[in-house]
């Protein structure tokens, strides 16, 4: 009986191990990349980078390491602290962060490459973030580092993400802080553990399980209980229709708040588009903003560089030439164009002075 149980136990262990190895091999043959999550959800519900972390990522043809410093900024070798330098924080989503790009190919690296340390650009990009997340990340970064300027690298989904994540609600013309997602006990117990990061880094099968954790286990979603026991303030449902002016007014108020907080710290605020047009079907709220971007930003009083026309011309009418096709993230050529345009319009004289 004991021998039989021992044999069955060994056989079961062998089957489990064999299934895991077979599954890993099958996913490898399929071209599935190993990937390690460096994104986190702050207690207040906004998306941020995991500080002091080196995450395994990948380009279109190889693996790379994304290095995140103690502040949650993506590190590049070119950023060295000089007290006499003009320090500029660049905020945005994965386009600003440089997803799928090596350090030397990101927009931020290209910016720092030409300034000779007279101006230092800091990479505050956070994948999947919207305008509201970026305000919260600005508050976090600026509490640690004294910046002279902030550039928001606006992308095609910023406003829709802000609406979806419900970090702010516009009520009677005033912005009120709210929240949709809140990390659960399991998020802290699993996501911050070394074994979780190790398995994500080394197992394709486990990364699939990790995605399920993020979807079903790691967060309390207030929206799921919207009609029953919501804890946070929500806008009226009819306000969220794309035909309504709610999202436009909220974005304007959000940028005004951003500007006021910058000015109170004697920081200049600027806005740049990534050059990628908004999609009216997938991103109706951001699309609406883009259609009146010049007038809205002029009304708020923030300097703007809209790169949509420039990138379309540089790509000879086919933006896929500047994208990591079939993905729409900027390729190294696009990153360089974006950096050159920012430097040409705003910083060429300052660079030449040095």
Explain this structure to me?
- The chain is built from 13 helices and 13 strands.
- With 354 residues, it is α/β, with parallel strands linked by helices.
- The chain folds into two domains: 1-32; 35-180 and 232-353, Rossmann fold, CATH 3.40.50.1110.
- It has a five-stranded parallel sheet, sandwiched between helices.
- Strand 8 and strand 9 form a beta hairpin.
- Helix 5 (158-165) crosses helix 10 (284-291) and helix 7 packs across helix 8.
- 33% of the residues are buried.
- The model has no long low-confidence stretch (mean pLDDT 88).
* Low-confidence segments: none
Output the CATH class name of the largest domain: Alpha Beta
Mean pLDDT: 88
Overall morphology: globular
Q: Which value, in Å, is the CA radius of gyration? A: 22 Å
Major β-sheet, in short? 5 strands, parallel
According to CATH, the fold-level topology of the largest domain is Rossmann fold
Order of helices and strands: HEEEEEHHEHEHEEEHHHEHEHHEHH
CATH architecture label of the largest domain: 3-Layer(aba) Sandwich
How many domains?
Answer: 2
Helix fraction, binned, reads 40-55%
- Percentage of β-strand residues: 15-25%
User: Strands across the major sheet, in which order?
Assistant: 6-5-7-12-13
Question: Oligomeric form of this entry?
Answer: single chain
Structural class: alpha/beta
What do we call the CATH homologous superfamily of the largest domain? Answer: SGNH hydrolase
Instruction: Give the CA-CA distance, first to last residue.
Output: 84 Å
Q: Give the total of beta strands.
A: 13
Query: What is the helix tally?
Result: 13
